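Subject: Predicted fold for Gustatory receptor, 201 residues

User T.R. writes:
Posting the sequence so we have a shared reference for the thread.
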Amino acid sequence: MCATFWNQNQWFKLTQNLQHLKIEKTKSYHKRFHLLQAAYWILNIYAIYVWSDIQGVAGFFEQYFFDLVLFYYQFFYMCVSVVVTQLLKQKYESICQMLKNQKLKIRVLKTEDEAEKCVQKLEEYVKLLKETVNIFNQIFGWPVLLNVFNSSFVTLDYLDDLCKNSFEYTRAQYIGVIISNIITFAFCLVSFCFISVIICF
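User M.O. replies:
I've generated the structure tokens; pasting them so everyone works from the same file.
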């Protein structure tokens, strides 16, 4: 958690660079981001209800509070990383458009000084984007690997509960446990693809 969100210098530099790399048409991800957060909490409130019914509210939070924080951090991390990735993708697309426009512009320009200024401007833009991508990799690189390991372990744990009723729950409790585990399982494995699809379109 510290590695991703508490490195203020890198976050400041990343946001500053993204602001400098302005493009004409930027998609807004605010509504989709908040919609995903709401969906996450609605589904997790159901899972909390199921487990609180089995273990009691105090017992549930005593045993699973850290897991709740960890799963939300993982989900929030994926949402933020996908949004920033999409912003970087838009910047790269704008560079391609700028290259086409500059190519046409340079052909029309009569003096070498004007052509050189156009090329320098484009070069600065590309350097700034390269620096931004490097900062993104420093912020989000290691957490990706750690999320893969964590998701693998959680998946194995929840698949065990899905396949057999180890704790001899009642039929109603077991159905609730299955639904709850499927929700958690989905957020661990499928959420990155799901988030990518929702935010990209």
